[in-house]
Amino acid sequence: MRERRNIVELWKRGNAVAMATLVRVEGSSYRRAGARLLIASNGEYAGAISGGCLEAEVLRKAQWMVRDGAHIERYSTLFDDTADIPYGLGCGGTVDVLLEPADTAEFEAHLEALEASLRGERRRIITQLPEGGAKFARCVLDAAGSAVFRSGPAVIDASLPLYDEILAAPQRLIVFGAGDDAQPMVRMANMLGWRTVVLDSRAQWAKRERFPEAEIVATSVSGFTIERDDAVAILTHSYEQDREWLTRSLAAHPRYLGLLGARHRSALLVRDAASELGWTLERACAGLFAPVGMDLGGDGAEAIALAVIAEIQACVQGKIGSSRRMTAEMVEEQVTRGSAARYQQTQCAL
């Protein structure tokens, strides 16, 4: 997402000349289909379509290659001096790159769709690829499936080569808690191009100057809605705030919900939230990562932030493996152990 922001920012300067988009990959490739490289007339560029193997070639020849309009260029990343496809560089595959000039309505529609996605608006881009006699054409659809752009009278023919792409909105991370440990978490999320929201009822912590990268920094959740695609991290270090926001977050079913804190404290919070919602402990635990973050080792705010961001990224990408999760049995054990310890302290005091 950060790369997408950089591309849009460069486009806004008004001197773009061409766009290269990776539309097909055969075999191994450093980048997946959908990777982009925007090239400006002054030599500036944003994005990447490989690990550095192809960028120099495309940058050097981009304006010349699009002089007659959009076309497909094929590059081999297999190391083979005798190959008919140029630039074998040892990465292990073949890629098809769509090169399109920046002076077309299709290009403008492409960049406007990228910009809209960064605002949180879903877009689908269907591009008829200029190969096999097909004419270059494009259709852009909004989240409801309505066309916001269509290439003149050209009709997208499903029997012709197409590149169909969904532009999802950037991941949104909601951080409940504006303490010092939240700052590196927000910075790392910003590096990934995520949208970040920081909420904390304590005005001395929830300040814009403490979180310049955040989209929203607020002391009240009035009117604020947690969406199903959101990632939520709860780390206020205030039991009452954590209980309120854990309850609210569980009910919203975000794609990721993490709770910072010691196991016993977390167990008490889960028990209270489940009771308030009328849920079983099993149901509450199933929607929660606690202790929050992957077990990467290390100590301090930055290490915790890395563990949390890594776990969210894995969860969002469907790559989550063995994260630390609480179970109903663990909650009951921790609550019972804490109650027993308090009883023993009371007896000793007597």
Automatic annotation (TrEMBL):
List the InterPro entries.
MoCofactor_Util/Proc (IPR052698), XdhC_CoxI (IPR003777), XdhC_Rossmann_dom (IPR027051)
* Gene3D superfamilies assigned to the protein according to its UniProt record, in alphabetical order: NAD(P)-binding Rossmann-like Domain
Name the coiled-coil region(s). none
User: What top-level branch of life does the organism fall under?
Assistant: Bacteria
Specify one Pfam family: XdhC_CoxI
- Transmembrane parts of this sequence: none
- In this chain the XdhC- CoxI domain maps to 10-75
XdhC Rossmann domain residues = 173-312
Protein name as catalogued: Xanthine and CO dehydrogenase maturation factor, XdhC/CoxF family
- Organism this protein belongs to: Bryocella elongata
List the top taxonomic levels of the source.
Answer: Bacteria, Pseudomonadati, Acidobacteriota, Terriglobia, Terriglobales
